[in-house]
Design a protein that fits this description.
10 helices; mainly alpha; 80% helix; single chain
């Protein structure tokens, strides 16, 4: 369990992260991932964030529940659920240093990857989502927060604002539940993990509510610039200081 300073860092990160994710559909996990690693250790990142982000995504679903695109979510999860379960098994046997380097590469690579998909060079159709779900599901078991990579596919398909926020949240929640079930099988989910995750996830309900009402006022260009800067800084941190 974290000390008082650790709790303050995690709570502040959960609130800020939920504000970001409530507007952009991702960002909470990107912000919380290094904070959890620094305060609780690398091995705790995926189990704690699995519980936290499950509740965080549930909050975004609740505030935008009427805008879910069921066709996209269903097809995405056909590939994502089995791939997430497989990835969780791989995570259970991985070393801390290996996990850190994979996360670092993922965060940095998300910046150019998002820009390539946003450039409209690649057209995403409904039939592509089972394959996209399989790739994202496998990756999510290791890095947990795949929003920076997942969001360009949804945006390229044509999902916008609340439809995008709600649909992405449904897909992410299903992957978190699948991963959590697999982690419980390998005793990676403990009562301490659940306590920390539920506390942070509950705080994210507040942030998601505020973000829901601020969605129309956010400058997309400035926001994406901030997110990309955070991705690079945090990715370098994991690569250069893997322990």
């Amino acid at each position: 369990m974290p000390d008082l300073a650790g709790w303050a860092i995690l709570v502040a990160g959960a609130l800020l992260g939920s504000l970001i994710a409530g507007v952009a559909g991702f960002g909470a996990g990107v912000l919380l991932l290094p904070l959890v690693a620094w305060t609780l250790g690398m091995r705790a990142t995926a189990p704690v964030l699995t519980v936290t982000m499950a509740l965080g995504n549930l909050s975004r679903i609740w505030w935008s529940r009427g805008d879910i695109d069921g066709r996209v979510a269903l097809r995405f999860l056909l590939g994502a659920i089995p791939a997430t379960a497989l990835g969780a098994i791989l995570y259970a046997g991985a070393s801390n240093e290996w996990l850190s380097r994979v996360i670092g590469v993922f965060l940095i690579a998300a910046v150019p990857f998002r820009r390539i998909l946003a450039s409209h060079w690649i057209r995403v159709r409904l039939g592509h989502f089972p394959l996209i779900g399989g790739a994202i599901g496998l990756l999510s078991a290791v890095v947990v927060t795949t929003g920076p990579v997942l969001s360009p596919f949804f945006l390229a398909y044509g999902l916008r604002r609340t439809r995008y926020i709600a649909t992405e949240a449904v897909c992410a929640l299903a992957m978190h539940v699948t991963r959590g079930t697999a982690f419980a099988r390998y005793a990676l989910i403990t009562w301490d993990t659940v306590t920390i995750g539920v506390t942070l996830g509950s705080i994210m309900f507040v942030g998601s509510w505020i973000a829901r009402h601020a969605l129309e006022r956010m400058s997309e260009r400035l926001f994406l610039a901030i997110i990309e800067t955070l991705l690079v800084i945090m990715g370098l941190q994991f690569l250069l200081v893997p322990r």
